[in-house]
């Protein structure tokens, strides 16, 4: 009953949520407390300021809510038709996220197939080793959110039960510290059972291998991110290579926590809307934009003289650049990298096979499963001097081609003007002229008796042969 009452309060609070703008460049200690509408996310406004600047009209919000309500009421039919990612890119209405996220990631279907499974996992004692680790991390998850202020509050206790249930469900993986903030964000929007199955889908379908003890997928994707950064922002890539700033120093927190510890909370929710719709490639796009904003210009690199300064620059991007609408537009517009993760995102919105009832053996991990197919845009255009040389070479090639054609045409005209040589008369000087006459056939042999012979022809008998 208490869980249902809490869920109703969260949904009622989400209905009044305003997609605000995170204010920028102010010191935390000097911020003034804001109004009640800025507390829609449950964060203490003096530490997490939100502004109503850029708020969409109420009519537009209601229109989007009605559209998503219609889609979620006929979800299978909507998914059977052409799926439009643009709806998620515009942002899911705050009042609909509790209903849309489980449908998008497949958590709702998993929960329907495993009715009562979460209660069974919740009542299991669990591994004492994992329970001790989870207990140490609980107070670190959104300490300024009203749900997680008190150690005895329903937020921390619910998060403890959710993470313990996951360690029982997947004992071979256990608990990863980065799962704490992910589970906390899910728990802010939906009941614990739905949040649990959404966490399972994110860990197994969207980010397989991320939360394993070896974290093979994170290591691999870090190298992929560096390769993409080299093509998208060469200046930042050279700076990071110069100061030996490896991808694991900044990408690990971004990808494992889904940016929940890095960006303003409204922007995090917009990223999650797109991530649950399109898959892990969204994490790469967001990361590339962050590096470009922090290290993409010479002015920003002037103060970065080492590893510490570079990492601090990545953490201190001006908040005005991280406002949700501005930032997501930058992700879609400026990043010219198209990532087709054929192995991860294939059949993302198709019905999935039923997971095993028990923990079962660990899922097979093969590096080929995590290797993405990357398609990048062509390299940037060459410098001005190189383009000038290429134009001159092209002109010279055209001139030589025209000269060759002109010579061929002139040769053809000259050949047509020349007359064929006349027939030469035989040279008969000093030679003897002989005339030989073939014997004439008789009239009887020709079968024409009484007829006079006609004029001699070449093939006739009296034809004279002349030779020398």
From TrEMBL:
InterPro entries: Rab-GAP-TBC_dom (IPR000195), Rab-GAP_TBC_sf (IPR035969), Rab_GAP_TBC_domain (IPR050302). SUPFAM superfamilies: Ypt/Rab-GAP domain of gyp1p (SSF47923). It comes from the Eukaryota. One of its GO terms (biological process) is calcineurin-NFAT signaling cascade. Gene3D superfamilies: putative rabgap domain of human tbc1 domain family member 14 like domains, Ypt/Rab-GAP domain of gyp1p, domain 1, Ypt/Rab-GAP domain of gyp1p, domain 3. Residues 7-22, 384-414, 446-455 have a biased composition (Basic and acidic residues). One of its GO terms (molecular function) is GTPase activator activity. Residues 91-279 form the Rab-GAP TBC domain. Pfam families: RabGAP-TBC. Residues 1-22, 373-468 are annotated as: Disordered. PROSITE patterns: TBC_RABGAP. One of its GO terms (cellular component) is filopodium membrane. Keywords: GTPase activation. This is TBC1 domain family member 10C. It comes from Chelonoidis abingdonii. The gene is TBC1D10C.
């Amino acid at each position: 009953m208490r869980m249902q009452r809490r869920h109703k309060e969260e949904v009622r609070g989400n209905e009044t949520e305003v997609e605000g703008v995170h204010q920028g460049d102010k010191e935390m200690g000097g911020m003034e407390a804001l109004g009640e509408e800025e507390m829609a996310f449950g964060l203490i406004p003096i530490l997490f300021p939100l502004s109503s600047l850029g708020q969409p009209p109420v009519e537009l919000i209601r229109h989007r809510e009605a559209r998503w309500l219609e889609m979620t009421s006929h979800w299978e039919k909507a998914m059977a038709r052409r799926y439009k990612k643009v709806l998620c890119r515009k942002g899911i209405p705050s009042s609909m996220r509790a209903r849309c996220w489980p449908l998008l990631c497949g958590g709702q279907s998993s929960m329907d197939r495993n009715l009562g499974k979460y209660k069974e996992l919740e009542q299991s004692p669990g591994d004492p080793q994992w329970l001790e680790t989870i207990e140490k991390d609980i107070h670190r998850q959104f300490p300024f959110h009203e749900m997680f202020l008190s150690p005895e509050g329903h937020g921390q206790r619910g998060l403890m039960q959710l993470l313990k249930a996951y360690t029982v469900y997947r004992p071979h993986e256990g608990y990863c510290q980065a799962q704490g903030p992910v589970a906390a964000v899910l728990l802010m929007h939906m009941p614990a059972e739905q949040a649990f199955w959404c966490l399972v889908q994110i860990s197994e379908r969207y980010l397989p291998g991320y939360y394993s003890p070896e974290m093979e997928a994170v290591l691999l994707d870090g190298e992929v991110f560096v390769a993409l950064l080299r093509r998208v922002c060469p200046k930042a890539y050279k700076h990071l290579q110069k100061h030996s700033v490896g991808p694991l120093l900044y990408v690990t927190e971004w990808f494992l926590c889904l940016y929940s510890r890095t960006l303003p909370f409204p922007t995090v929710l917009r990223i999650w809307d797109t991530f649950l719709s399109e898959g892990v490639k969204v994490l790469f796009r967001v990361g590339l934009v962050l590096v470009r904003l922090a290290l993409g210009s010479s002015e920003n690199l002037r103060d970065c003289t080492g590893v510490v300064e570079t990492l601090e620059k990545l953490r201190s991007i001006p908040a005005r650049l991280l406002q949700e609408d501005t930032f997501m537009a930058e992700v879609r517009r400026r990043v010219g990298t198209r990532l087709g993760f054929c192995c991860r995102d294939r059949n993302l919105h198709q019905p999935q096979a039923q997971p095993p009832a028990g923990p079962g053996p660990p899922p097979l991990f093969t590096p080929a499963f995590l290797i993405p197919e990357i398609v990048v845009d062509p390299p940037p255009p060459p410098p001005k001097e190189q383009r000038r040389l290429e134009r001159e070479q092209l002109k010279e090639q055209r001139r030589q081609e025209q000269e060759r054609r002109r010579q061929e045409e002139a040769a053809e005209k000259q050949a047509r003007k020349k007359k064929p040589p006349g027939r030469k008369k035989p040279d008969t000087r000093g030679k003897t002229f002989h005339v030989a006459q073939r014997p004439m056939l008789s009239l009887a042999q020709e079968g024409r008796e009484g007829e006079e012979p006609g004029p001699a022809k070449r093939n006739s008998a009296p034809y004279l042969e002349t030779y020398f």
